[in-house]
Write a structure and sequence with these properties.
Number of helices: 8
Length: 206
């Protein structure tokens, strides 16, 4: 992958690009960015001889971006939480979410914050719900850091070790494209399912 290699035109954008996308996905309520795929693919690329960034720089920076995004998500929930739950017909949140999520995080919050990093939509919205539901910040911060390190470092290093396999290194572009396609299949299926359900509902109404 010359264009992402050390001498490629986009080499300098790899590290900041990864950090920016991870931050947006974890902190700005945009759950459909391919964070898992990105980290794994970045690890694959970091294993190549002409890698634009060292994996031991990439992995902690990815975790740091995830932590920063989580803190922003928590702040959004903490500051705007009451406004998000005022209307029963809010598009993404309902008023009763505040009470139920508070109870949920009291019982399962720590586990949710850690494991949630590995689940796309949960990764995006768990910090917001934690802030809006009044979860103690010190508790959230501790477990968000654990989850962010496990996710950001874990997936990147996993991709790095797989990238060291000769077959993978020889077919890197194909592997990255295949991973990207597989990562968007669930979202595509969800969108198509929603369109099908809406179409059936409209036909039933007529």
């Amino acid at each position: 992958m010359y264009w992402l290699g050390a001498g490629g035109p986009f080499a300098a954008a790899v590290l900041p690009g990864v950090m920016l996308i991870v931050f947006i996905e974890t902190g700005l309520l945009f759950p459909f960015l391919p964070g898992d795929t990105l980290l794994f693919s970045a690890g694959l690329i970091a294993a190549q001889p002409n890698a634009p960034v060292d994996v031991w720089t990439l992995a902690p920076c990815a975790a740091l971006a995830a932590v920063a995004g989580g803190q922003l998500g928590y702040l959004i929930g903490w500051r705007l939480g009451p406004a998000l739950f005022k209307k029963e017909d809010a598009r993404f949140f309902k008023k009763h979410y505040l009470a139920s999520s508070h109870q949920f995080f009291e019982r399962h919050g720590r586990k949710t914050i850690v494991i949630g990093h590995f689940v796309g939509v949960v990764r995006t919205f768990a910090p917001v719900i934690a802030g809006a539901s009044g979860m103690r910040y010190s508790v959230f911060l501790a477990y968000d850091v654990i989850g962010a390190i496990g996710w950001g470092v874990g997936l990147t290093v996993l991709g790095y070790h797989l990238g060291g396999v000769p077959f993978v290194g020889a077919h890197l572009e194909l592997m990255v494209v295949a991973i990207a396609i597989l990562s968007i299949l669930p979202v595509t299926a969800s969108v198509l399912r929603a369109m099908f359900v809406r179409s059936r509902a409209e036909k039933s109404a007529t």
